[in-house]
Fold Mannitol 2-dehydrogenase.
Amino acid sequence: MSVKLSSAALGHLPEGVAGPGYDRADLSPGIVHYGVGNFHRAHQATYLDRLFASGKDRDWAIVGAGVRPGDAAMRDRLATQDWLYTVVDLDPQGLSARVVGSMTDFCPVDPEANIERMAAPETRIVSLTVTEGGYYIDAETGGFDGDHPDVQADLESLRPPRTVFGQICAALKRRFDAGVPPFTVMSCDNIPENGQATKRAVVGFARLSDPELADRIELEVAFPNGMVDCITPATSERELKMVRDRFGIEDAAPVVCEPFRQWVLEDRFPAGRPRLEDVGVEFVDDVLPYELMKLRILNAGHAAIAYPSALLGHTLASDAMNDPDMAAWLEAVIGREAIPTLPKIPGVDFRQYLATCAERFGNAEVGDTIARLCLDGSNRQPKFILPTVRDALRDGGPVEGLALEVALWCRYCRGEDEEGRPIRIEDERALRLKKAAEEAREDPLAFLRIGDVFGDLVHEDRFRDAFAAALRRLYDTGVRAELRSYVAPSG
């Protein structure tokens, strides 16, 4: 028999399931969080749960907020179990489950309810996990897209705003008018310079509706940058059944995730903050070096194994990491060509971080797929690989491995693996990529001429020649032979 999760169930949880470890009646809210999805509940909410369990800062509990139908559905699921949920750490040494209690309420998915809660003096942080698309980033300029239909609908309506950023602006105005200091706005999304992206969105919205408010927000509100990391798969019927059958918990909204978590934050919280450093959060003056490390080791590492693994027929990332040639290739290309482009971070060992990433990629319990890692290459390569190429070229560093990685992507974009089995290219530029990859069989530079992906790299002789040579060798000798040749070059 499984136990239906609720406050009443905390006193008799099944053996092996940890409870919150504190009296939730002692908690009071300090944070409003938009986007109560799996990542937030595996990451930020879990850090706070551990902090509360240590006996500290129990006036920083979370109140959920949302603006979309999916948020209302999550609210409904959590409401039936008193805002509790189970987190299962997918540790290959043994799965573990914990009921997390750091959320004490969830606003009705209604603009006025969200604004009122944020305007309350006890709210000192408003945090967000709304995904990259939720920031209304203009694709051409990188600035705030004030012409987006959602934004325009808010600006033209006489009702309270329905977007996250319109609601934040409305709440800040109420606080300013009432003489209440502003809250800190903290993005927890996995995007570079997430604090700056949030500031552009909030100030950009205010600038279109109330320029005086925009000026005051720009001057008085803090938007710390943060780097977040924890692989968190979606919850499906498989996870619901696993939590029920393996741990004896009937949970409408469990979360499964890898055991690794990282959170690096700029320490800019004028309204105060919980002592998250006591539970492993790193507070620093500048997050950007940490973001660059993640982009060029973890994200680039995923790209490095994705395409050769697909071409060799691997299905899961853990399968790939059990392939000695793939593991050696990952260590070699990132170690030789990506790590040398990184600025040093005191106390951080990049090679140890790479080893940790490789271990994470190999976690079979997570079930991460090669198909997922291959998604959207035409947007990921310019973020994770090509900036490293440019820096290496500028500094006179090696680019042969990075050129091979791009050649592997090109070979993948032909749409078949080495056994002739079809590969479905999931990319907004799929047709262009496939056409260019087919042309590159005879003219390798056809692929590099995709200007909105590669920019001027087709004119960089050293990279261009290395790419062309690598692509020819892939067709002549095959993927595995080329990986081995790079890892252990002859002579």
About this structure: The chain has 22 helices and 14 strands. The mean pLDDT is 96. The first strand starts at residue 3 and ends at 4.
